[in-house]
Amino acid sequence: MGAFMLYSLRMLLMSVHFILAGMIGILIGLCRPFNPDNSRLCGRIYSLPAMRILGFKVKAEIKDLLEHQRSCVIIANHQSNYDLFVFGGAVPARTVTIGKKSLKWIPFFGQLFWLAGNVLIDRGNSQRAKKAMLATTDTLQHKDTSIWVFAEGTRNKGRGLLPFKKGAFQMAINAGVPILPVCVSTYINHMQLNQWQGTELLMKSLAPIPTVGLTQDDLPALIEQCRNQMQACIQALDEQLMQAR
C-alpha cells in the first residue's frame, strides 16, 4: 500500500471512529449527565481505537498521575488536536477538563464534552471566563474531582512550550490543591501517518507540587517552577527517543 493510500485510509477510519465514539459518548452522557467520571470513559473510547488507527505507540510512566491525590489540578503540554487521543487513555477517575466554549459546536464531540461535566470557557469574554474559572474552586474543594488543563492555553505545534496562562495556577492556589504536571514527548514533528512503523511517544507524570499556604503573590514563581520542570522533562523525553532511533 502506497504512502498516500495509507494516510488516506487512516484519515477515513479516524473520521468514522470520531463519529461513532461521539455517539457512544453522548449515550453515556445522557445516561449519567455531568458525571465527572464520564471524561475518563469517553477519553478511553476516543483514545484506544484511535491510537491503533494512527499507529501511535506510547510508553507511559504515569504512576504519580494514576495514584494522584484528589483533588488536584493536572497540567499538560498541548501540541495538536491529536492530544485528545494521546492523553485520552491517561485521564484518571473523576477528572474533568477545561476547554473553549466553541468546542460545543463540534458535532457529537461538543455535546458529549458538555454532558461529561467539563468546563466551557468563553475566552472572548474575560469576565465570564474569570467567573467560570473561579467556580472551579468549589469543584476542587468539595466534589472529589480533579481538573485537567492545557496550561499553554493553545497548541504549540511542536515549537516548544508556550508561556503558561495563569488560570490553572490561580485555581490551584484558591483551592489549596496540588498541581500535577504531565508531559508527552514532542511528536507532532515526527508523525509517521503515511508509514507502517507509526510514531513512538513517551509520556511521564511528575510529582505533585503543593500549593497549600501560597497566595496570588506566589503565582509567578509557581508558574515558573512548573514550566521549568515540564520543559526539562520534555527535553529529556525527546533525547531518550532520539537515542533509541
From TrEMBL:
Q: Which pathway, metabolic or otherwise, does it act in?
A: Lipid metabolism; Phospholipid metabolism; CDP-diacylglycerol biosynthesis; CDP-diacylglycerol from sn-glycerol 3-phosphate: step 2/3
Return one GO MF term: 1-acylglycerol-3-phosphate O-acyltransferase activity
One matching Pfam family, short form? Acyltransferase
Ranges for the Phospholipid/glycerol acyltransferase domain? Answer: 72-187
Q: Which InterPro entries match?
A: AGP_acyltrans (IPR004552), Plipid/glycerol_acylTrfase (IPR002123)
Q: Which GO terms describe its biological process?
A: CDP-diacylglycerol biosynthetic process; phosphatidic acid biosynthetic process
What SMART domains is this protein classified in? PlsC
Arranged from A to Z, the UniProt key words for this protein are:
Acyltransferase, Lipid biosynthesis, Lipid metabolism, Membrane, Phospholipid biosynthesis, Phospholipid metabolism, Transferase, Transmembrane, Transmembrane helix
Q: Which GO terms describe its cellular component?
A: plasma membrane
EC number(s) per UniProt? 2.3.1.51
Listed under catalytic activity are:
a 1-acyl-sn-glycero-3-phosphate + an acyl-CoA = a 1,2-diacyl-sn-glycero-3-phosphate + CoA
Q: Where are its TM segments located?
A: 12-30
Comment, domains: The HXXXXD motif is essential for acyltransferase activity and may constitute the binding site for the phosphate moiety of the glycerol-3-phosphate.
The UniProt similarity line reads: Belongs to the 1-acyl-sn-glycerol-3-phosphate acyltransferase family.
Its protein name is 1-acyl-sn-glycerol-3-phosphate acyltransferase
Organism listed in the record: Iodobacter fluviatilis
